[in-house]
């Protein structure tokens, strides 16, 4: 029984970290739901209910691949719009990607690398306005 309880207590501490909660947040929500601030004070059935609640909260978080894909699509659309606004071919942005990161195509870049291409295009646009 003690091993089972320890297992549930560990889960009760892992899930809040995955949600980005600090100890005060976790304890505050436990206080609202169960009237206690510590998982050690919860009976096993309430502890299981708490872990179930946390698990369902974690499931609502979009996975990294989904959020990366959505972010990349928005960034690539922005790069397309920037190139179109400056009457530049998309190959210009691919050349920036190759020069900055050694990667031939925009689609292969990470969201952080795409931000660098967007910044370079914005800088190019500013330079054009000054002339």
Automatic annotation (TrEMBL):
Domain of life: Bacteria
A Pfam family the protein falls into: GemA
InterPro entries in UniProt: Phage_Mu_Gp16 (IPR009363)
Protein name: Regulatory protein GemA
Organism, as annotated: Candidatus Doriopsillibacter californiensis
């Amino acid at each position: 029984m003690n091993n089972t309880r320890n297992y549930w207590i560990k889960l009760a501490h892992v899930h809040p970290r995955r949600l980005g909660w600090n100890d005060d947040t976790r304890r505050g929500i436990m206080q609202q739901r169960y009237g206690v601030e510590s998982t050690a004070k919860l009976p096993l059935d309430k502890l299981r209910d708490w872990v179930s609640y946390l698990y369902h909260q974690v499931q609502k978080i979009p996975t990294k691949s989904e959020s990366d894909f959505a972010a990349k699509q928005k960034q690539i659309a922005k790069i397309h719009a920037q190139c179109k606004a400056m009457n530049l071919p998309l190959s210009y942005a691919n050349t920036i990607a190759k020069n900055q990161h050694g990667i031939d195509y925009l689609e292969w870049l990470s969201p952080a690398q795409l931000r660098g291409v967007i910044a370079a295009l914005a800088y190019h646009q500013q330079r054009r306005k000054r002339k």
